[in-house]
Design brief:
globular; 4-stranded antiparallel β-sheet; 17 helices; alpha/beta; about 40% helix; 7-stranded mixed β-sheet
Length: about 450
């Protein structure tokens, strides 16, 4: 990577690319808070599995002047004038996304994955229709029919879970439940399931029960786009995703992929169904992300994410930490901290003391409430973006494991915090290693 390219993007080693020099004069209170968050991000080991750092090219577009353009409607069918250029941007984003996944239809307007999910449900189902989805405590997502979410209040939801012995999805049990419930829609995917999902097996169950298949790939979308984990697209009628996490794009963004026959209904469900004008700056940032995803650097990044996740798992296992399902196939792993006399909340707070951010999380068959839980969810995507490799992830895993084993050892906490600070010194939020040259041709 040519140094002048990274400088032209306003990005240098150890420098926060979110800075706004004039803000300190115009709004010092807000500037101070932004500076504090910048410092926290640069000085933290980010293991939150749903977080990542987007590239300078994506950052340059999100929050750009495109955010001021009202573009209510779809390309060629807007409710306001002056949309000829944003029409071209949205069409470009759609074309690039379809090429990445080989899908028949794509919608890039949903402002979050949950909005895409709710829109999909409204496009496909009627209130009271039956859904079969993964139990939230076993790794599912709240928008898949949790009782406190609108998806659980409008539809008749039944859940499948994981085996008590393997802590992985029991497809025989899925088949039995589907045969009894005869759902209209089967959902596969979740937010804290560390293993690859057998989408082909789910498609077989759906065919046997005359159901539709929806794959929520929010956590593994980047890995799937890079073709380092199995794809859901050939097997599912619908695929939804966020564009951050392993995809490393604009946070909060979502995409929706589905077969052409459902395209019109899904588009109508998003607009005018539940959302107004789209954020064109976010759509432009996604278009940049989709091009970036097609570059060789993104494939190498995704392979590194998997390698680093396994190194992190190895370090934790070496220190006696039990991992749900025994390990991971993706960027994500779930640690059970009960053997150390800790709750997930205790562990989350302990990790914060040494500069590691992760999140408490329920584990399968958890006896604690979600507010405290028995597990900690960790992921490798963000720190891979910052440039760490397997040796550092192994070291982080052993340090975290030692901390969990010795929660009362204040001397170790001090030493671990210093060691991690040294590891992060001078590390950018986005490693130039993953930036491709602007002249590089792409598949998108």
């Amino acid at each position: 990577m040519a140094p002048d390219y990274t400088r032209r993007l306003g990005f240098a080693s150890g420098e926060c690319y979110d800075r706004n020099d004039s803000l300190a004069i115009e709004d010092p209170e807000l500037a101070s808070l932004l500076q504090s968050e910048s410092r926290r991000q640069r000085e933290s080991v980010t293991l939150v599995a749903s977080e990542n750092f987007s590239s300078p090219r994506v950052r340059a577009l999100e929050g750009s002047l495109l955010g001021d353009k009202n573009a209510e409607g779809y390309p060629g069918k807007r409710c306001v004038a002056g949309c000829e250029h944003v029409d071209a941007i949205e069409a470009l984003a759609i074309a690039r996304l379809k090429a990445l996944f080989g899908c028949e239809h794509a919608n890039v307007q949903a402002m979050s994955a949950t909005i895409a999910n709710v829109a999909l449900l409204q496009a496909v189902l009627k209130p009271g229709d039956a859904i079969l989805s993964m139990r939230l405590a076993d790794g599912g997502h709240l928008s898949h029919g949790a009782p406190f979410h609108v998806s659980g209040q409008l539809y008749h939801v039944q859940h499948y879970g994981v085996s008590e012995t393997t802590e992985q999805i029991d497809m025989d049990r899925v088949r039995d439940i589907a045969a009894q419930v005869r759902p209209k829609l089967i959902i596969c995917g979740g937010s804290s399931y560390p293993r690859n999902i057998d989408y082909a097996a789910f498609a077989e169950v759906a065919k046997e029960t005359d159901a539709l298949i929806w794959a929520d790939i929010a956590h593994v979308a980047g890995l799937m786009a890079a073709r380092v984990v199995p794809s859901a697209v050939p097997h599912a009628h619908f695929v939804t995703s966020s564009t951050h996490k392993t995809w490393r794009g604009p946070r909060g963004g979502a995409v929706l992929m589905c077969r052409q026959e459902w395209g019109y209904a899904v588009d109508r469900a998003i607009f005018p169904g539940i959302q107004g004008a789209p954020k064109m700056d976010m759509i432009a940032a996604r278009a940049a992300l989709f091009k970036e995803t097609a570059e060789p650097e993104f494939v190498q990044y995704s392979k590194a994410v998997l390698e680093n996740a396994n190194a992190l798992a190895e370090g934790l296992l070496q220190e006696g930490v039990r991992l749900v399902s025994g390990g991971t196939d993706t960027h994500l792993l779930l640690a059970d901290v009960t053997r150390f006399g800790l709750s997930g909340l205790d562990a989350e707070r302990l990790l914060m003391e040494i500069g590691v951010t992760a999140n408490k999380n329920v584990i399968p068959f958890d006896k604690r409430p979600p507010s405290s839980s028995s597990g900690v969810r960790m992921g490798s995507a963000a720190m891979t973006t910052r440039g760490l490799g397997p040796s550092e992830f192994l070291r982080i895993g052993t340090m975290v494991g030692t901390l969990l084993r010795r929660p009362d050892n204040s001397a170790y906490r001090i030493r671990a915090k210093a060691d991690l600070a040294e590891m992060l010194e001078g590390l950018p939020l986005f490693s130039p290693r993953w930036l491709s040259a602007p002249s590089r041709s792409s598949r998108g």
